[in-house]
Every structure is written in C-alpha cells, then in structure tokens.
Amino acid sequence: MYGRSSSARSSLTRCLRVADFMANKPMPEDTLPVSAASDDDRAHLRGRSRQEAQHRVSVEGQALQRRSLDLGFLHNSTITLNMLPNEIFVSIIRHAVSGEDTMAWITRTMGVCRHWRETIIRTPLLWTDIRLSGNMQFSALCLTRSSGATINWYVSEAHVRPPPLDWYSATGSLLALHHTRIKHMRIYLEATITPLVQLYWQLSTIALPVLVSMDLTAVAGLSTQWIPSYLPSLRRLSLHRLSVDVTHLPLSQLTSLDLNNVDLPSRSLASLLDVLKACTSLQRFVYEDTDDMPINELPVAADNRVSLPHIRHFCITATSAHTSSLLVHILLAKQTRVVLYPNDFHPPQDENHIPVLNTFLPRDSAYWPAMKDLTHIMVWWYARDGLTIYADHETTEFWELRPWRSLDYVNLGTDTDELSPVPALVIEHLQIDWPYPSCTAEPLRAVVEELGDFFPVSAKTFVLRGYAEEIPTETWTEP
Q1: Which residues are paired to 378 by β-bridges?
Q2: Strand positions, DSSP E, 320-392
Q3: DSSP secondary-structure letter at 228?
Q4: Dihedral (C-alpha) 416, 453, 342, 368: value to the nearest 10 degrees?
Q5: Contact between residue 375 and residue 459 where contact means Cβ atoms under 8 Å apart
Q6: Region 196-224 average pLDDT
Q7: Cα angle, residue 249 at apex, residues 246 and 251 outer, rounded to 5°
Q8: Element of type H or E holding 171
Q9: Could you tell me which of 77, 137, 53, 69 has the C-alpha nearest to residue 103?
Q10: Is the bond leading into 421 cis (omega within 30 degrees of zero)?
Q11: How far apart are alpha carbons 225 and 263 in whole angstroms?
Q12: Which of 250, 270, 349, 360 has the fewest C-beta atoms lying within 10 Å of its C-beta?
C-alpha cells in the first residue's frame, strides 16, 4: 500500500513539472484562438508563454470590467431621476427614509448604483440620525459622514439585556464630543440602564446650544434635574414618566409641551397650572394621566385661571373628574382645537337625568370662545367603541363630503389623525358605565339632551350615529 502511494506522488510531481515547463514555453501559433482574438491581440500574444498570456488576458479583463462599470455609471447619470439637482434628489431620499429604519434604508439604497452610493456618501444630511442602541461602529461612521451637520440623537429601542459597560462609556464620550451638534434628542431609558446612563452621560453639565426638541422617556428613577440647564434653542419638550422640577425647565420658550404620566410636585392640580402659567409661548399642549393614583385634589381658587393666548392644539387624556377640574382653570384661544379623551366615566346613580358631557365639559364659553360658534355637530355612540363627538365652526371637506352617510364608514375614532384639519372639538373613546339596565340607546339619548347646554341652537349640520332610530324625534330636534 505504501509503495503504491509513493509511486502516485512521484507521477503527480512529474506531471506538475511538465505542466510548469509547458506553461513557460511560447505558445504554438496554431493554438491561438481565431474568433475570440483580434489581430492586435494575436500580435501581443505571439511568442509569449501561457503564463504571460493568462496574465495579459487577466489584466485586460479587469480593465474591461472597470470600463464597463464606468460606462454603467455614465449611463445611470443620464437617467431623469439622476439628472435632478442634488438638492432635490437628496430631499426625495430624505422623505423616503423618514422613520425608525432610516439608516437601514439608506444602506440598502446605496446598493442601487454607484451614482446613488457616491451621492449618499457625500451628503452629510443623510447621516445625521445617530441611533445608539445598535452598532456603535456604525454610529461612529454616521458621525464622521455627517461632517459637522446638526444631528439627531436616539436611544429609542428597548434592550433585550442591559448593554455592556463599554456601551455607556462609548456613548458618553460621543455625547461629550458632539453635544454642540445635537438638534433633536429622543431617549428611552429602561429601569435597568437608567442609573449607569446618569453616571456616564453627565447630561446636566453639558450645554446643548442647538437642541430644538427633546423627547425623554424614563421607566423609573429619573428627574428633569438630569436635563441640561442651558437649552437656548429648545422649543419642543416631551416628558414621559419623569419627576418634573418646574424651576429647572426653560418653559417660557417652549411652543410644544407633552406631559405623559409625569410626577408633578404633590401630584396636584396647582402644580400643573404652574407649569402652564410659565409656558407663555405655548402653541401645542398634550397631557396624559393614566396612572391609577388619583391626582391630589387640593383646593384651587376659582379665579386661578391660566390664559394660553397662542395655543393651537390642546389635548387631555385623563379621568372625567380630572379633565373637568383642569378645564375650568384654562382660558383657551378661539383658534384652539380641543381634543379630549376622558376615561373611567361613571355617571351618577340618577335614573331621571344622567349627565355625561356636563360632568367634564364647562358650559361657560369664556374658557373657550369657539364653543358658541360650533355649528357642525356629530355624535357617535356604540357600546363597544364608546362615545365620539365631533364639532366644528368651519365647513371643511369632511362636512361637505358627508362620508358618514355610507354604512361602511367606520368609527370616527380610527380616522381622527387622517382628517385635515382636525375638527375644533373632538371627544373620543368615552366609555360610559351605565348604572342600570336599559336599551343600548340610553347613553346616546342622554348626550343628545345635553347638547343644547353647550352648542348653539342654530346648528347647520347635526348627525347622529349608533342606535339613533331608538331616540324619539322630539329628543334630537330639541338642540
């Protein structure tokens, strides 16, 4: 067996030597290809060894590939889309990639062609989304390619497990290095990472001179004292589940404020009114309080009213009682659009008259002058979806086209965000826990009986949906 293997190896060695010898000998004239080679190719290959011929063919093949790519690049540059000015092309790309997967979409788009790849790489504005929950090397690459442009700083995805310690130090170093470039910041901090982020980021000692908007969510254990005190450009602030220190926030310069289940001092109405009183430039306010702990109903003077003359959008999600106690202390502008999501509604145990709107909606139009001008009214009630009310003083496309006439038209609550403009008054998802067995139309009848307390009698449009056939005509004609 050994002798046979040794003989085979010797034969293979001889064959390789012969092949090497033949490869270095000039190729015979009759072995040159006829159809595949031009006269110039044949002249260059004549008298050369096979190795030399292979090398030359390989070099020329690579040159042809490069030339083919260059021609493809030139061809793509003549396509109508690619002939657009770079500013327009980049604007189209930016609109197409807006969303959570911006960088993933951009990296895929770079593979379309070399023209797109080079344009994207050379455009700093397409590399400004810095998502620190993912690959830190990619974040560093984005910071480099953004080339001094203002950036968006995101920690928005929940971690499956707490990140390693070097993540905190790396992100803290990037923050210290690029803090003057951060224009938008959206941070989601879980309870597991909050203590270490506070330690490594030292955000309270860093200036953010160009920061325009901040969206900060903390699952537990974070106060607004962690937010930098020098925020001269901040206009939009959104806080979720933070302890709010009113004295530490630049409230007077804000045009938009979202407070979502925040911990105000003593959880009192007075604290919330103090916040709004300090927001002298506010145009948009969204407040949500869905915590089980009731708000501290400390007495607030009846004449303690907060005027919001610039407000355009005012949205409250809270219990009916909390909504009522807040609204009676707010003076809204006539142009304000009011959106209310009252929850946990339990009407009084009175079979003769059960108020619904009167439990949370002030009758005095002084708090909102537009109330007396709402001449288009729609009331929608289904037991599963709750109560929805639209009211408007403008004859918008929604009221002109009357889409609700179709039996296929779905509950209004699913379409509010799609309406433009949003009606002046929106009350949605009001679930009514009726105190005694009755027909399904009772909540709708009770609301219809109250409409005259709030809206003018000269309504131009009045629409009822949901069990309306069970309401006597004299009831719905009264408003």
Answers
A1: 390, 463
A2: 330-332, 337-343, 376-382, 386-392
A3: -
A4: 70
A5: yes
A6: 81
A7: 90
A8: helix 165-178
A9: 137
A10: yes
A11: 13
A12: 349
What average pLDDT does range 302-316 have in this prediction?
91
Instruction: Write the single-letter amino acid at 156.
Output: S
Nearest residue to 235 (alpha-carbon basis) of 273, 271, 281: 281
Name the pairing type of β-strands 256-260 and 236-240.
Answer: parallel
Q: Is 174:140 a contact under the CB 8 Å cutoff?
A: yes
How many Å apart are CA 459 and CA 373, to the nearest integer? 9
Q: How are beta strands 376-382 and 313-319 bridged, if at all? A: unpaired
> Residue 130: CB partners within 8 Å, gap ≥ 6?
139, 142, 143, 146, 151, 152, 153, 154, 174
Strand partners, 296: 268
Element (H, E) at 215: strand 213-218
Indicate the pTM of the whole model: 0.78
Sequence ranges of the domains in the chain = 43-78, 345-479
pLDDT value, residue 293: 59
Alpha-carbon distances, residue 280 vs 47, 129, 140, 220 (angstroms): 90, 31, 39, 30
How many whole angstroms separate alpha carbon 153 and alpha carbon 166?
A: 18
In sequence order, what are the residues at sequence separation of 6 or more whose Cβ sits closer than 8 angstroms to the Cβ of residue 224? Answer: 239, 242, 243, 244, 245, 248, 249
DSSP assignment letter at 31: G
Between 273 and 65, residue with greater pLDDT: 273
Which range, 167-181, 270-284, 287-301, has the best average confidence (pLDDT)? Answer: 270-284
Average pLDDT, the chain: 78
**Going by DSSP bridges, is the β-strand pair 284-288/376-382 parallel, antiparallel, or unpaired?**
unpaired
State the DSSP H helix or E strand holding residue 332, giving kind and residue range, or none if neither. Answer: strand 330-332
Neighbours of 255 (CB within 10 A): 16
Q: Give dist(CA 265, CA 412) in Å, integer.
A: 36
Q: In which residue are the tokens 């044949």 written?
A: 42
CB atoms within 10 A of CB 181: 20
Are the C-beta atoms of residues 330 and 305 closer than 8 Å to each other? yes
Give the integer Cα–Cα distance in Å for 112 and 453.
62
The DSSP bridge pattern shows strands 386-392 and 425-430 to be antiparallel
Q: Residue 215's pLDDT band (boundaries 50, 70, 90)?
A: very high
